[in-house]
Amino acid sequence: MRPLRFGARCGRVRNERGVELIEFAISLPVLLFILAGIVDFGFLFQRYEVVTNAAREGARVKSVASASTTADIGARVSAYLTDAGLDPALATTSVNAVAIPINPSGTVTASGNQVVVQYPYQFRVLSPISGLIGGSFGTVTLTASSMMRTL
Asked: Which of 5, 63, 87, 131 is within CB 3.0–4.6 Å of 137 for a Cys-Cys bond?
């Protein structure tokens, strides 16, 4: 049986000092890159939900009160965005009302309008990650539309 040589084992350990620090320095930018992408996607998804709900509110205004104007719809959409903390000046609202026949049972025909509110919103990206994967470096356009029927 050979005696255990403690000095040889310590020499090997001494040569590996600082390896963890170098591995951390190499992996830290990758981890920060992934974290920034997660944060950007979270903000983007939250803004998309707010823009979708704002378009739905605008369509609801026209659906409930068919005498409402485009200015009324735009005011409701702007109020919803302001309440959610977004800048309504960055968006445009368009309302498209088309007369369509509604025939639910096959025998009774009612008339109505289909209201479509489209709402593009410019989202400013926090980090340049989207540009590295094919998106734009500055802004992403979020477009939401909502359709409701009026009687």
From this structure: 131
Query: Is 72 within 8 Å of 52 (Cβ atoms)?
Result: no
Q: Which two tokens stand for residue 59?
A: 């369509």
Q: Please give the chain's pLDDT, 151 residues, in tens.
A: 666 665 555 555 567 778 889 999 999 988 988 888 888 889 889 988 998 898 888 888 878 876 777 788 888 888 998 999 888 877 777 777 655 554 544 444 444 555 666 677 777 777 776 666 666 667 778 888 887 776 6
The answer to whether residue 26 sits within a structural domain is yes
Residue 70 and residue 80: Cα distance in Å, rounded?
A: 15
Domain presence at residue 29: yes
Cα separation, 45 vs 38, in Å, equals 10
